[in-house]
Design a protein that fits this description.
Helices cover 36% and strands 13% of the residues. By secondary structure, it is of the alpha+beta class. The chain folds into two domains: 108 residues, Alpha-Beta Plaits; 37 residues, no CATH class.
Length: 151
């Protein structure tokens, strides 16, 4: 795998990895993200190309104890990758099923252990199908997420 441009540490043992990539269409990028998440045990709900990342310096309030989000650089910020730089993606795509934890990551939502991202997505889809204004949905979700639920 190429070195990530940035790695966000969002809580104990949880990371958001960011590569600057050019030359990929949205469908190809999302397919690659899903396959990489399955390969490395990532959150399958966090594979959309419009992902909003946690901001360094802010607290992650998702768990019982606040964790300040930190960032580190692995590759120069100016480094831009292309699909062929992810050789492991092509090599490993056919072997994903044999990786320990990959099947569990792919099936996690089917057994009731849904992530906040999956719940957010389901909420947004329900509201959009009901004909609600997308901007209002975003505001409602931001308001919900901004409340400290652990006081």
């Amino acid at each position: 795998m190429p070195a990530a441009n940035y790695v966000l540490n969002t809580s104990a043992g949880r990371f958001q990895v960011i590569w600057r990539v050019q030359g990929l269409g949205q469908d190809q990028a999302e397919t690659m993200l899903r396959d990489l998440a399955a390969r490395y045990g990532g959150d399958p709900a966090a594979t959309d190309s419009t992902r909003v990342f946690r901001l360094p310096g802010f607290s992650n309030k998702k768990y019982g104890q606040d964790v300040q989000v930190s960032i580190r650089r692995e590759a120069p910020a100016s480094q831009v990758y292309a699909a062929q730089d992810f050789r492991i993606y092509a090599q490993e795509r056919s072997r994903v099923a044999s990786v320990p934890g990959a099947a569990a990551a792919q099936q996690r939502s089917s057994v009731g252990d849904t992530s906040q991202s999956e719940r957010d997505w389901a909420y947004a889809v329900r509201k959009l199908r009901a004909g609600e204004d997308p901007n209002q949905i975003i505001r409602d979700m931001a308001s919900y997420r901004s409340k400290d639920r652990y006081e």
